[in-house]
Amino acid sequence: MNKTKQKHSYTQRESLGGQAFNVFNALFFLVFALSCIFPFYYLFINTISDNTLVQKGLINFYPVGVNFKNYLSLRDVSDVGTAFTVSIARTVLGTALMVIASSFVGYLVTKKEMWKRTFWYRFLIITMYFNAGLIPGYLNMVMLGLTNNFLAYLIPGIVAPFNIILVKTYIESIPAELEESALIDGAGYLTIFTRIIWPLSVPILATIAIFGAVGHWNSFTDSLIFMQSSPKLYTLQHRLYIYLNTNTNLGALLGGGSVDSATAAQIMENTLNAKVIKYTISMVTIIPILLVYPFMTRYFQKGIMLGAVKG
Question: Quick check: helix, strand or coil at residue 115?
């Protein structure tokens, strides 16, 4: 009887401890999630609030004077529409080319009959650890005629070694009997790839598509370095960088006290506009990824787990 009571007491204490841990765990991750979400929320409420209050830093937890004129006014901001189109185009085309190349090369290196397969695969992996550097890379792009050229956004990212490794590992997890039966029926490698391997590889392809799309959308250094003489090819992130610097430079000039009152008033107006534009463009650059990512999550979870089982 005493042993039964002790066991029941131990189980009850264990149950209370488990419940306390679950409550603490839930609260911790709730706070962590809110801390991750709040910067986006803060950015959003500042873009839909009264611009004067935004400039004074009075918008912190809820919007005041709600309006969407900042988003509408982006139509009048020079080159933002063009930059948005460039970002969309490079993201869609660059991601599509990368997924196609990664899937095809990933399938190719799984074939033991491929000529010098081990050498080419190791040569591909080496590129993950060695980089020519910024200046040699820039000189290479100049010699190839890819500066001030939209192709500079696409060509360097077509071959992605890490994504190829993920695809290769995933394809190796597909039962070999499927391909063997297709070979017996007379199907060639291209037919097997397009009819069997490609449809079965949707999870890992969606996973690398997320990697590629986020990378292309967020990139601005290639626009900054390679498109110096072609403002029409600036990406949206590059435009955001320009407006951020404009806001900082105007604020520094005003803080120096070396301008008259009329100029100071004009600078204040420009600084306000630059700050509002910065917030609004930042939100615009975030929205597309926030809209796409939730629909890809189910593929991402499955693909990244199956693609990382073995190397």
Answer: coil
75-306: CATH architecture? Orthogonal Bundle (1.10)
Q: Residue type for 38, please?
A: F
CA dihedral 39, 41, 47, 52 (to 10 degrees): -80
DSSP 295: H
Say how many C-beta atoms besides its own lie within 10 A of residue 284's C-beta. Answer: 19
Start-to-end CA distance of the chain, whole Å, equals 56
Structure-token pair, residue 9: 């007491």
Give dist(CA 297, CA 285) in Å, integer: 20
- Along the 311 residues of the chain, how does pLDDT read in single tens digits? 555 555 555 555 557 767 777 888 889 989 998 888 888 888 888 887 777 777 777 777 877 777 777 777 766 666 777 888 888 999 999 999 999 999 888 888 888 887 888 888 888 888 888 777 788 888 888 888 888 889 889 988 888 888 888 888 888 888 878 877 878 877 778 888 888 888 888 888 888 888 888 888 888 888 888 888 888 888 888 887 777 776 555 445 444 444 445 444 444 454 455 667 777 777 877 777 777 777 666 666 555 555 444 44
| Closest of 245, 269, 264, 237 to residue 253, by C-alpha | 264
Spatial contact of 223 and 234, defined as CB atoms under 8 Å apart: yes
Domain range summary for the chain, segments of one domain joined by + = 17-67, 75-306
Q: Give the integer Cα–Cα distance in Å for 243 and 281.
A: 9
3-state secondary structure of 235: coil
Q: What length is written for the chain?
A: 311
Please report where in the chains the tokens 């830093």 appear, as a residue: 57
